[in-house]
Amino acid sequence: MPQTNLIQKIVRKVIIPIAEKCAKASDQKEQTKVRFQEFMLAGYQYHRADGVWPFLQTGEALRLQREPYNRHDSNAIAVYFKNDMLGYISRGENRVLAQMMDHGESLEASITQLLPDLKPWRGVRFSVISGSKGRI
């Protein structure tokens, strides 16, 4: 019996705390996110951004959708607010993000600034965050 009590004490005082620390460290690793630069919309004038402008708010989530078969840009990434397409991440800035998405990386986007006094395509600024571990 004394050995059983000793083992239980060791488990409670040493092993369980170590296991809990390892679990917390593992959770923190999985939640690591990387914020990329701020982007402006490309192609704003050809899509629904004007129509949804009154509904846009700073912090609002945007959806990114890869368009690998886009005839103008094989790295195209469309930007949506709910079901309305706002435009694209510009051709000069989308290559790395497209590769990440193609390799299974989950990317999240949100509006960082709304600037109504600027030219329309500069008025909606958004950031992109990598959301999960991909296969890169």
Annotated CATH architecture of the largest domain: 2-Layer Sandwich
Helix content: 25-40%
**CATH fold-level label of the largest domain:** Alpha-Beta Plaits
The total domain count is: 2
Determine Rg (CA atoms, Å): 23 Å
Major β-sheet strand ordering: 1-4-3-2-5-6
Portion in beta strands: 25-35%
Q: Give the tally of β-strands.
A: 6
Instruction: Name the average pLDDT.
Output: 79
**The CATH class of the largest domain:** Alpha Beta
Distance between the termini: 52 Å
Helix-and-strand structural type: alpha+beta
Number of helices: 4
Shape: elongated
Question: SSE order, as H and E?
Answer: HEHEEEHEHE
Low-pLDDT segments? none
> Main beta sheet, described?
6 strands, antiparallel, barrel
Can you characterise this structure?
There is one protein chain. This protein starts with a helix and ends in a 6-residue tail after the last strand. The longest helix has 29 residues, at 2-30. The chain is elongated. It is of the alpha+beta class and 136 residues long. The chain contains 4 helices and 6 strands, in the order H-E-H-E-E-E-H-E-H-E. The mean pLDDT is 79. Strand 2 and strand 3 (76-81) form a beta hairpin. The protein folds into 2 domains: 1-31; 33-130, Alpha-Beta Plaits. It has a 6-stranded antiparallel β-barrel.
